[in-house]
Design goal:
heterodimer; A: mainly beta; 6-stranded mixed β-sheet; globular; B: mainly beta; 7-stranded mixed β-sheet; 4-stranded antiparallel β-sheet; 0% helix
């Protein structure tokens, strides 16, 4: 069974601070996605990383895929209240059918 | 136009009842999923269909039965509802790695 552990589980910070969320596994994934979920809504895709060591930027969000494709990080610079939400990583396995496993989630609160 | 829609949004019912949740996607995707999100926000896959064919069936009780009448629809029927079934159920669709989620159905069993 592939498991994805996210840390921290909860994070409450002031507007303008920087933060990093980690997504770790002992399994290798063919790709990894990051989603953000707001209360009462479904998760919304932010980014997909595919290559080991890959870095992608989405405005103030920087995503990195580990060299061994077992882990990933999400760094937010100068957090805004609009960044508040549940962040989920999701790993896609390799093989005939690419099963997706979701991480344990990180709940972020950015205080104005 | 809503890409993935689910009905109902909220469902409150008593133990022992049977209920259904409907899902439709207009993205033309081949694969659809049902997920259960518990109170700790952990999102766990229940079923996956590809072109109306069941391809993933995680360890879900037999009381849960998915049905895919066509590629754009995946419904979830639940028999003999139990208190532990209370959760938010999400439908999703995908064509490749990325998944597109519906707004969720909050099921409360009393």
């Amino acid at each position: 069974t592939q498991l994805l552990e996210q840390s921290p589980q909860f994070l409450s910070i002031q507007e303008g601070e920087n933060l990093t969320v980690y997504c770790n596994s002992s399994s290798v994934f063919s790709s990894l996605q990051w989603y953000r979920q707001e209360p009462g809504e479904g998760p919304v895709l932010l980014v997909t990383v595919v290559t080991g060591g890959e870095v992608k930027k989405l405005k103030r969000l920087t995503f990195q895929f580990g060299d061994a494709r077992k882990d990933s990080s999400l760094h937010i610079t100068a957090a805004q209240p609009g960044d508040t939400g549940l962040y989920l990583c999701a790993g896609t396995g390799s093989g005939g059918y690419q099963k997706v496993t979701f991480g344990t989630g990180t709940k972020l609160q950015v205080i104005p | 136009d809503t890409a993935v829609s689910q009905t109902p949004k909220y469902l409150v019912t008593q133990m022992g009842n049977d209920k259904s949740i409907k899902c439709e996607q207009n993205l033309g995707h081949d694969t659809m999923y049902w997920y259960k999100q518990d109170s700790k926000k952990f999102l766990k896959i229940m079923f996956s269909y590809n072109n109306k064919e069941l391809i993933i069936n995680e360890t879900v009780p037999n009381r849960f039965s998915p049905k895919s009448p066509d590629k754009a629809h995946l419904n979830l029927h639940i028999n003999s509802l139990e208190l532990g079934d209370s959760a938010v159920y999400f439908c999703a669709s995908s064509q490749a790695r990325e998944q597109y989620f519906g707004p969720g159905t909050r099921l409360t069993v009393t």
